[in-house]
Give the backbone structure.
Amino acid sequence: MFGSIDPLVLIASLMVASTPILLAAMGELVTEKSGVLNLGVEGMMIVGAVAGFITAVETGSPALGFIAAAVGAAILSALFAVLTLVFLSNQVATGLGLTLFGLGVSSLMGQGYNGVRPPSSPRVTIPGLSDIPVFALHPMVYISLLLVVAVWWVLRSTRPGLILRAVGESHDSAHALGYSVRGTRFAAVLFGGACAGLGGAFLSLVIVPQWTEGMTAGRGWIALAIVVFASWRAWRVLLGAYLFGGVTVLQLNLQAAGVAIPVELLSMSPYLITIVVLVIISSDRRRAAANAPASLGRSFHASS
Amino acid sequence: MIRLEKRPTPSRVWAWATPVVAVLATMVAGGIMFAALGKNPVEAIRTIFWDPILGEYAFYYRGQLLVKAGPLILIAVGLSLGFRAGIWNIGAEGQYIIGAICGAAVGLALYPLEARWLVFPLMIAAGALGGLLWAMIPGVLKTRFNTNEILVSLLLVYVAEQILAWMALGPLRNPDGSGFPGSRNLRQYEAAANNELIAGSGMHWGVVAALIAVIFAYILLSRHLMGFHIRLAGQSPRAARFAGVNPERLILFCLGISGALAGLAGLFEVAGPAGQISIDFNTGYGFTAIIVAFLGRLHPIGILLAGLLMALTYIGGEAAQATMGLPAAAIQAFQGMLLFFLLGFDVLTSFRVRLGREAHA
């Protein structure tokens, strides 16, 4: 069945399909490393998707669209940051609220943009290389890969990365050492929001490319699951996102090929596989607990 | 400088005042949003909150109030038990769908048997069991493999939606429906219908079940050992361990109850107001119920009131859609805003806001 499909084309489509989740998951990784659990990834993604789409359509520039998506989703995440870091609200509840609010706001903003085609992005062409499918993709695909390297490097071997991890592991100790817990976490949440927004915009501007309500279809939640799967490590996030992308591409190919498996079963397979992977990775209790940032999900108040 | 000072014990006054303040703040912020959409904000707020109860056409809307509030309360009561214990079932939407499918499947399998005393109770049992089993998936995975129940329960919503589509197009499709998707209309099947008990009131068996659930949850939380364990596990997990609370049993209990109630809500909806299994059967009650649970302070009586209020925003929103052309999504954003304000103002429950510099003790 795959005889007619060039494996490089398959890998290229896998990379494209994985990019929204990779971007969102990298952002969430940084947020969680700082000790904040933001369950609003889905909401931030869809707001990024609509903000990027509207901006790109109105200005005719996909690049501006991506910038607007990052800014829009970061603004939404700032709302989460203010509530959880300043007003010390429950992070789980606030994250859920962010998702519900984001879904509502996005469909409100996106009215009148159904069925509109966004401007297509120019491709970077490098003579010789661009004939190979894997090297002729949308620039954001490569930016997302650079992001993985950057996050890995910053977290591992720079001072800001070390402070971020300290805040996430033990906010009381970090505070006692004179680091700003709130400031660090605020920045991490904004970074997570911007990344999720980019992921959403990649979906609405490149993959689909169209605006439909609820178009993220759970990708934000899968990004959250991938962070757990990756045990909070940048390289494994890449692995997880590409694994998910592979499943998506495979099931779409199977659907197109008309295999005798119900379409619904194929459509639910990415979610089911995510659950299976989560089970495998979580089952070793000691390892799972050792990898999670120790202060994840806990509110910080200087006097307590 | 504004700073927060932790209260020795959470304020009881603020615990109940924050929902009211949050609703008022949402009305103001929502008014600004409606104004930004080019609608008269005062008229919009009046159409949403006032007209459905006391306006000219209120007789039509009043019945709708209970129809919408029933499933919201039923689901939210179940969710609140888990939320109190720190067990986050956010996949109620999926349990709602599976409950509806199981219940409807039993009803459709027995068609055209006329024994209502047999068919309807069997459907109710199947609906509750379906939701319960669907919620047991994150429960068992959590207790056996330590898997995060938030992610699993949520991901299962998307799986349930696919099952719903498959059922509506395949196994449960109406054989006399000339190929259209969707099942037989259960409301036209006497033995399975969940019709209004009092005409025009909106009161159906689902609403009755919601009221029973509120009373049951109230007694459980205030009088029963299990309720004590739930509260203890939420307030101090360490103390709960010393008190001999079995965390695994608690997880399964909370997820099971919330799943069963969500399944029941789905069944009563499919046999009553919705009438049939169709692709777009679910409308997000499972998610809105999360807001209802928090707005009601995770307290059964509070949830009852919050469910009615949230139902009001639904039907008020529909009214505003019809008369003012307010987009449907505006109401969704409005409901999300309400949760935000609630969570934000909640800081006043456990902290005092102090002006000025920190006093040295």
